[in-house]
């Protein structure tokens, strides 16, 4: 008789009807909450987890973070994670369950809110996986932690949970696993060993001038001109200072100076974002930004030194080679559409903070969410992005006001992937 595979165990266990979870997904999509304000989302998740009387639930960790712990005999401890927060984006998908929510942001400004990055799908997949694993404890042994994280979009949620004593409240896991729905063919699972997502840093740079009347520029130090020189010079960091074989991206995402046409302001604010994989490249870019900004301030006669304020930091998402190998074997035996060596993405996540703080090996994969027929029209059936003849149609990606993952087969693949990851290391 052939040995029972992880996929066989899951197929025997996953007769769960996902129709209620499709409705739950629509609820979360229609009721998004901004980072650090995920109160109702967290309460809804806790209520759902509590109905099986299997999970020890702890809430309000690092904000509105919560965990459920299911102890099921001896064995390893596995942590599965989903993020909960949404974005200040006005949804234009036209879906019947589209968000019409508005909320006040951290600065008190009223903003439209949308699950434009798929965190609603992450929540729902993890809740469904939690039910399957709770109802099939005869197939595995060990401890399962399901973790729902706030504030991923601003880059602080995972660290806040760690700083709030996460691993004093739950057992330290042997492995941490997570996933992210992406602009990929629906139902596909995409994995790679090593770095799968880049590190990201953001900072706000304030440079100072001397304000005055627009007709008398000789009496001023114009921060608009100063900022313009800085923006141009920053473009040379990647093209002239970073090894072309290494990843480096520097983006000026915002530039704010002045309030009206005939007044020269006394300051300008520059919003920067940069992406790297190697720590030494990150340090080089930070050093270069400082050097350029400070030199341009001196050259312009700025009356005060510039101010640098870091606003976000995401570590690189590194997949443990050994854990990824085990996941690859399980995924390959279960999913028809599986890429074991997907290209690294330059977008970023703070998931790996949950592992880096204790040296815990991690595994992270991408979940395709784009309607299969649309994907095949654009890229050709069975082809990847950038291949095939294409129909000329556009496919919205993460953070777009049009981003709308198709519910199935996205959800089924996401649920199965989480269950497979847990069972791979908890199988009896």
CATH topology of the largest domain: Aminopeptidase
Average pLDDT figure = 95
**Arrangement of strands in the largest sheet:** 1-2-6-3-7-18-8-17
How would you describe the oligomerization state of the chains in this entry? single chain
User: Could you say how many structural domains there are in total?
Assistant: 2
Give the termini separation.
18 Å
| CATH homologous superfamily classification of the largest domain | Zn peptidases
C-alpha geometry: elongated
What is the CATH class name of the largest domain? Answer: Alpha Beta
Poorly predicted residue ranges = none
What does this structure look like?
This protein folds into two domains: about 5-200 and about 315-425, Zn peptidases (Aminopeptidase, 3-Layer(aba) Sandwich); about 200-315, Alpha-Beta Plaits (2-Layer Sandwich). It is about 35% helix and about 25% strand. It has helices at about 5-15, 20-30, 40-50, 120-135, 155-165, 165-170, 225-235, 235-240, 280-300, 320-330, 355, 370-380, 410-425; strands at about 55-60, 65-70, 75-85, 100-105, 110, 140-150, 175-185, 190, 195, 200-210, 210-215, 250-255, 265, 265-275, 305-315, 315-320, 340, 360-370. Strand 1 and strand 2 (about 65-70) form a beta hairpin. The chain is elongated, with a radius of gyration of 24 Å. The two termini are about 20 Å apart.
Write a concise keyword list for the protein shown above.
Aminopeptidase; 8-stranded mixed sheet; 428 residues; Alpha-Beta Plaits; alpha+beta
């Amino acid at each position: 008789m052939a040995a029972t595979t992880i996929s066989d165990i899951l197929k025997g266990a996953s007769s769960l009807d996902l129709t209620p979870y499709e409705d739950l997904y629509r609820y979360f999509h229609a009721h998004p909450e901004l980072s650090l304000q995920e109160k109702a989302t967290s309460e809804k998740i806790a209520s759902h987890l509590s109905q099986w009387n299997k999970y020890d639930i702890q809430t309000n960790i690092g904000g509105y973070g919560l965990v459920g712990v299911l102890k099921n005999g001896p064995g390893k401890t596995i942590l599965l994670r989903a993020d909960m927060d949404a974005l200040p984006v006005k949804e234009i998908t036209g879906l019947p369950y589209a968000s019409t929510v508005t909320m006040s942001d951290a600065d008190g400004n009223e903003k439209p809110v949308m699950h434009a990055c798929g965190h609603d799908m992450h929540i729902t997949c993890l809740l469904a996986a939690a039910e399957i694993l709770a109802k099939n404890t005869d197939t595995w042994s060990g401890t399962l932690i399901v973790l729902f994280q706030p504030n991923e979009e601003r880059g602080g949620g995972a660290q806040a949970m760690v700083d709030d004593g996460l691993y004093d409240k739950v057992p330290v896991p042997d492995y941490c696993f997570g996933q992210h729905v992406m602009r990929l063919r629906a139902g596909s699972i995409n994995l790679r060993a090593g770095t799968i997502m880049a590190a990201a840093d953001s900072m706000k740079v304030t440079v100072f001038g001397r304000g005055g009347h627009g007709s008398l520029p000789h009496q001023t130090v114009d921060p608009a001109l100063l900022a313009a020189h800085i923006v141009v010079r920053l473009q040379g960091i990647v093209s002239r200072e970073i090894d072309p074989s290494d990843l480096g991206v520097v983006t000026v995402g915002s530039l704010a100076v002045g309030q009206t046409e005939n007044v020269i302001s006394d300051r300008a604010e520059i919003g920067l974002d940069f992406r790297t994989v190697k720590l030494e490249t990150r340090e080089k870019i930070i050093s270069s930004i400082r050097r350029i900004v400070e030199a341009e301030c001196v050259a312009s006669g700025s009356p005060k030194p510039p101010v640098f304020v870091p606003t976000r930091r995401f570590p690189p998402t590194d997949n443990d080679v050994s854990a990824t190998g085990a996941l690859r074997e399980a995924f390959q035996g279960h999913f028809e559409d599986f890429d074991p060596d997907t290209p690294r993405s330059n977008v970023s996540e703070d998931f790996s903070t949950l592992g880096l703080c204790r040296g815990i090996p991690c595994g992270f994969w991408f979940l395709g969410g784009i309607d299969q027929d649309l994907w095949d029209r654009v890229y050709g059936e069975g082809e990847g992005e950038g291949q095939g003849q294409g129909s000329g149609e556009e496919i919205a990606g993460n953070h777009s006001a049009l981003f709308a993952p198709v519910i199935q087969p996205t959800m089924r693949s996401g649920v199965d992937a989480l269950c497979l990851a847990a069972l791979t290391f908890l199988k009896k």
